[in-house]
Amino acid sequence: MNLPWRLKRRRRRAAGRKADAEFDERLRMKNGNGEPLKRKKYEKEIRKLQEELCYLQDWVKHKRLRVIVIFEGRDAAGKGGTIRAITERVSPRVFRVVALPAPSDREKSMMYMQRYVQHFPAAGEIVIFDRSWYNRAGVEHVMGFCSDEQYERFLKLCPAMEKTFIDGGMQIIKFWLEVGDKEQKRRFEARIEDPVRQWKLSTMDLPSRSKWFEYSRARDRMLKETDTKHSPWNIVMSDDKKRARLNCIAHLLKLIPYKKVPREKVKLPKRSMKGAYDDVATLKGRNFIPQRY
């Protein structure tokens, strides 16, 4: 039976809404019991994990490890917040964050991986990529910034390229943050309305919202081609940001075996009074900022 096109469209939309609702429910169930994590509980747990990250940091320096951690995912999935939670209490000289802008004309003329390789870790470093070479499998493909030939070539060569890095002594850890349709919509609306979040709204955010299923297909193809034994993807359900951060950090700590490195006992020396003078009085008349708080 040939149905009128309007009826077909209504049925497709209804099927899409049903699929969205089912997917959101699956995300809710995988995120936990569906209840938001209380701030007090979150702060207690994040403190424990950040303490362990400091021990990991010492171990990475001690053993001169080279680690790459990749964060990919849908827009507004919480990548930036998770990275901040990881790096908040550790040294930026050990945990380096790389968030590259769009490539310049010069960089576009380079070998594709060239702009990323120059940021790879030296001994005793962990480099966190906030978006990575997987841009080619996602935004570049969906938004038409690369050709189909470049896209297919990347998916074909990427697993072998990563294995080469790993065989050379590098550890590569890949996280994909997945946010549901309703939660992404809420976060985008908050970015539009809230002045302190508007800086997060990039020129790619709104098109990514309208191209939801194109990004879903790109994600599925990327996972199919690059989720390998030597470099697997770790999926993080991120509708609940606090739970996502805790789960992600806990899993990261599990993926890098480490031990607590013994430290020498530190004793604070007494202040020497040799050459003592009134070093507060000498500041009189200088330009102090107003005490507003």
Largest sheet: 5 strands, parallel
SS-derived structural category: alpha/beta
Q: What is the domain total for the residues?
A: 1
CATH superfamily: P-loop containing nucleotide triphosphate hydrolases
Q: Which sequence of strands runs across the widest sheet?
A: 2-3-1-4-5
The percentage helix is 40-55%
Give the helix tally: 11
The whole-angstrom Rg is 24 Å
Distance between the termini: 74 Å
What are the segments in which pLDDT stays under 50 over at least 5 consecutive residues? none
Give the SSE string. Answer: HHEHEHHEHHEHHHEH
User: How large is the share of residues in beta strands?
Assistant: 5-15%
CATH architecture: 3-Layer(aba) Sandwich
**CATH fold field value:** Rossmann fold
Mean pLDDT: 91
How many distinct beta strands? Answer: 5
Q: What would the principal axes of the Cα set say about the shape?
A: globular
